[in-house]
């Protein structure tokens, strides 16, 4: 990204230069009006002639005092004009150079992205996703059309593309063909459908999660190729119903979401070299030492074991859905990957 934090000072320099030029014109116009008795139009005309060094033709200063004032306007005003012109030219050239080098830096940074996530849209839903992925130290890029939001993300050191996520070239620039997952968080369901269709075509193995503003858009997004659809209004309604009718359950869910209990959910894939492979769940140290609860085991075949019993055998490729404290979940992940 360009050096966005410098944009405002450069804008101020241009503003001050233009103000200095306007002050010089006003100074000369009022002076010639009072000293020479010209009309305001003629006074402005003579002032501009003086400042632009065009020279006097039809309306020159006549009195000695008027000529002395003209000299003052020349000396002071010429400096103001030179300052305004040089500042504007410098700012334009600097902007072009910064944009060019910024584009090169961004392209170089994007070319290194691999196994990352793409967030299309950083509104109310996307901004929370950006926050959570940042906390998890995940590699991701945000595609956002709003310049102000993009500036904020850029200043935080995040990868940002200021572009339209529905365009194929934008997704290609975000290296969708090398990405692990994509979140379509645009406010318009039709745009999200288009993003999903394009992303699925560019990367058939991509994990795609889409936001649905309207309930009827869920089926369309799934048909377009989304793996999972989230409808914030529906989820919000369910959460409100739980909080209203089952307050204890609602408070527990809220405490986990807000991390008040220090607990979190995690999914862990069991590698072939893990010491867990071939063991029954009760024979591992998952519960006794790590104090982690395995909520579900998902087999490669698609079978899901909810609240698995102690005699459930762990197999290579299983995905363990666990709840526990962050440090314990990290240790579980290491053991599942075979890292001692």
List keywords for this structure.
Rossmann fold, six-stranded parallel β-sheet, single chain, 340 residues, 3 domains, alpha/beta, Alpha-Beta Plaits, four-stranded antiparallel β-sheet, Helix Hairpins
Task: Give a written overview of the molecule.
By secondary structure, the chain is α/β, with parallel strands linked by helices. It has three domains: 4-110, Helix Hairpins (Orthogonal Bundle); 117-230, NAD(P)-binding Rossmann-like Domain (Rossmann fold, 3-Layer(aba) Sandwich); 262-336, Alpha-Beta Plaits. The chain has helices at 7-35, 40-51, 64-111, 124-135, 147-155, 168-173, 189-202, 217-224, 232-245, 247-257, 326-336, and strands spanning 117-120, 140-143, 159-161, 181-184, 207-211, 228-230, 263-269, 293-298, 304-306, 319-325. Strands 3-2-1-4-5-6 form a six-stranded parallel beta sheet, with helices on both faces. A four-stranded antiparallel beta sheet has the order 7-10-8-9. Helix 1 (7-35) packs antiparallel against helix 3 (64-111) and helix 9 (232-245) packs across helix 10 (247-257). The longest helix has 48 residues, at 64-111. The radius of gyration is 32 Å and the shape is elongated.
Instruction: Give the CATH topology of the largest domain.
Output: Rossmann fold
Principal-axis shape:
elongated
Number of helices: 11
Largest sheet: 6 strands, parallel
CATH H-tier superfamily of the largest domain:
NAD(P)-binding Rossmann-like Domain
Counting copies of identical and different chains, the oligomeric state is: single chain
Number of domains: 3
Widest β-sheet, arrangement of strands = 3-2-1-4-5-6
Arithmetic mean of pLDDT: 84
> In what range is the share of β-strand residues?
5-15%
Radius of gyration: 32 Å
Q: Provide the helix percentage.
A: 40-55%
Poorly predicted regions: 1-8
Order of helices and strands: HHHEHEHEHEHEHEHHEEEEH
Counting helices, strands and paired strands, the structural category is alpha/beta
**CATH class category name of the largest domain:** Alpha Beta
């Amino acid at each position: 990204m360009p050096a966005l934090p410098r944009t405002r000072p450069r804008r101020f320099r241009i503003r001050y230069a233009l103000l200095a030029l306007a002050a010089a014109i006003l100074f000369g116009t009022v002076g010639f009006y009072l000293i020479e008795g010209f009309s305001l139009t003629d006074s402005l005309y003579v002032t501009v002639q003086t400042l632009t060094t065009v020279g006097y033709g039809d309306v020159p200063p006549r009195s000695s005092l008027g000529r002395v004032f003209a000299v003052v306007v020349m000396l002071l005003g010429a400096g103001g004009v030179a300052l305004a012109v040089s500042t504007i030219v410098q700012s334009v050239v600097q902007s072009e150079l910064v944009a060019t080098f910024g584009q090169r830096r961004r392209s170089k940074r994007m070319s290194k992205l691999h196994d990352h996530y793409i967030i299309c849209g950083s509104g109310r839903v996307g901004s929370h996703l950006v926050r959570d992925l940042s906390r998890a130290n995940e590699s991701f890029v945000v595609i956002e059309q709003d310049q102000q939001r993009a500036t904020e993300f850029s200043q935080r050191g995040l990868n940002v593309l200021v572009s339209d996520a529905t365009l194929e070239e934008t997704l290609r620039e975000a290296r969708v063909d090398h990405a692990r997952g994509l979140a379509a968080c645009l406010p318009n369901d039709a745009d999200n459908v288009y993003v999903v269709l394009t992303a699925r075509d560019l990367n058939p193995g991509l994990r795609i999660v889409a936001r649905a503003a309207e309930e009827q858009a869920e089926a369309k997004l799934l048909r377009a190729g989304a793996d999972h659809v989230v409808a914030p209004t529906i989820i919000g309604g369910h959460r409100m119903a739980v909080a209203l009718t089952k307050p204890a359950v609602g408070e527990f869910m809220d405490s986990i979401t807000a991390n008040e209990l220090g607990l979190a959910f995690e999914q862990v894939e069991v590698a072939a070299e893990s010491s867990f492979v071939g063991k029954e769940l009760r024979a591992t140290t998952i519960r006794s030492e790590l104090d982690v609860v395995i909520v579900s085991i998902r087999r490669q075949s698609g079978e899901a074991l909810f609240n698995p019993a102690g005699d459930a055998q762990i197999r290579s490729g299983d995905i363990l859905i666990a709840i526990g404290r962050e440090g314990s979940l990290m240790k579980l992940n290491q053991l599942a990957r075979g890292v001692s």
